[in-house]
Amino acid sequence: MIQIQQVKLPITHTKEDLEKKVRKILKIDKEQLLSLEIARKSIDARKKEELSFVYTIYARTRQEQKVLKKIHGTQVSLVKDKNYTLPDKGSLKSDIPPIIAGSGPAGLFCGYMLSKMGYAPIIIERGGMVEERTKDVTSFWKEGILKPESNVSFGEGGAGTFSDGKLNTLVKDPVGRNRKVLEIFIKHGAPKEIAYDAKPHIGTDKLTEVIPSIRREIEDMGGKFLFHTCMTDVKIQNGKIRAIQINHGEWLDTNILILAIGHSARDTFFMLKKRQIPMTAKSFAVGFRVEHPQDMINISQYGKSGAKILPPASYKLTANLLNGRGVYSFCMCPGGYVVNASSCEKQLAVNGMSYYKRDSGNANSAIIVSVTPKDFEGEEPLSGVKFQEKLEKSAYSMGQGMIPQQLYGDFKKKKISSSYGAFSSCTCGKSSFAPLHQLLPEEICRSFIEGMESFSGKIRDFNRDDVILSGIESRTSSPVRIPRNEWFESSVEGIYPCGEGAGYAGGIMSAAMDGLKVAEAVISRYAP
After folding, report:
1. What superfamily would CATH give domain 99-279+484-525?
2. Is pLDDT at 170 greater than 80 in this prediction?
């Protein structure tokens, strides 16, 4: 198979134009080209007057070695298919199924591979199925009635189900886990273009159809789901996991426990600490969701002509401040909504979400400031959790249970806003104006402002006074890390920390890929 990099064409090109360009690069006629596959597609917007798509192409031709001899340079090379393979099964016997705590991306994809290889895992989930969960979330956004076990954070598919469904990741992937995850998503109804888009996304409306389809295949392969089932205790003997308690009652025996609990399972973190499972506080980031008109972002990124043709634009912004803190955009949602993502009574957190079409009219992103254990009170492992809880209680109080908002110009002036500016907010959940300038510690507020002003040098008017801030964005990643060794195991034998909640991922793709890694570790050690 021949790989061709940096195939550049105008954004108005046709499928035939792409094929002609490939044949020209390879110096072959139409009959010699057997197949053409897009491996990657991105937008080059550095010159607004010359916008182009840039492709990496996989081509199969007759007499590939002969074709390559005619071509000089590094644009074209011979490559092999990168097929993901699971390890050989181990020999350690176990008559008890593995238990996976959590059905977010990490738990779901770990369960998928274990089921495929005959391990018949039991996947427990404190929330409900997507179909039920969607009703609970919609009801919460409309009526404000929170179900602590069924919300934006808890339930089948994890927190990623009610997000933009972004699938880009910076995780290095020499063995093909990334591609395998994308293939599974596509098999279950995700858009085919996620296989090659540089910034792939599925959208909440499609994710709520894809996730149940994956669940059904896992069940067909022998896996079992227990919904409304929360792990409330663990039994450890002689340094080994022996059983878990569910819903403060029944005990399930196991010698393999995969902790794919997600970043919001605070009660589970406290239980694990009580049972002396080693864990440490880790750095994360806090800040606000910021909204701009999507048209403004499109024009900034593409220019006026490109903005009329290309899909809603995204951005990625970073700033390293003199005080040592980083300020950056996170989970950018083109054409999205700011959502009330609360999971605890009288605590409020926000997140961003987009549907597949990304057509709300507003762009939103978390603009967040890095925090470290030095910012937390005390030095114990769950000090970061307590830091989050303090902020979320204040946000709930400020907004009287609604999403607290403030215009950026008023935030700088330290006054409560009274109305929106040239555009209104796109939210899921009720909102109210509040003094967000009082929510974060003063140094973090100053850092947030410094970051916003810096970003205006990259995107014109990013710091405009009528930018809408919503708080608090506090769950950017887990505040906890549960250490694991080179075999992906905790110091307690049989416990496998996994995914974002355990501190080893940040987003749908990296969590799903970590689920595959842990599945590989279990498979290589145990017999089904």
Report:
1. FAD/NAD(P)-binding domain (3.50.50.60)
2. no
